[in-house]
Amino acid sequence: MNNVYDVHMYAFHETPVIRKVDITPGLGEVQPEQNELLELIFKYGQNDFQPVSGRYSVSVGDVVELHDGSLHMVGGVGFFPISRETMEKLPPNISRKVIFPKNEEDLLEQLERRI
Fold first, then answer.
1. How far from chain centre, in Å, is Cα 20?
2. This model's pTM is above 0.85
3. pLDDT tens by residue, 33-50
4. Which residues in 76-113 are b (16+ Cβ under 10 Å) and which e?
């Protein structure tokens, strides 16, 4: 099983980059549910657990891509799904442009007010 996930780093990078996050150390016998999986990706996306040179830790505004192709933005509390179309509209350094979005609609409203 592939335990490496892509995180699209929009929060602090000038140019969005992908950080590969390996959650193997956090897996048990049972495949985690989606929320637990997202939490593991967030945890092991921290430089305290998996340091990656030239990459910030996974933060609010970054987007996790699961193996089924679904996209989930790190919110102020937890995660929320977003479309690929919305992700492609995200500006770099999004953490300086929005404040803890609650969902995709809130994210788009905040971005619209900033333009």
1. 11
2. yes
3. 999 999 999 999 999 999
4. eeebbebeeebbeebebebbebbeebeebebbeebbee
What is the CA angle 32-36-82, rounded to 5? Answer: 115
- Residue 98 pLDDT: 82
Classified as helix, coil or strand, 90 is coil
64 bridge partner residues = 7, 72
Q: What is the C-alpha radius of gyration for the chain, rounded to an integer number of angstroms?
A: 14
Residue 18 backbone phi and psi in degrees, to 5: -105, 130
In the block, residue with structure tokens 């619209």? 112
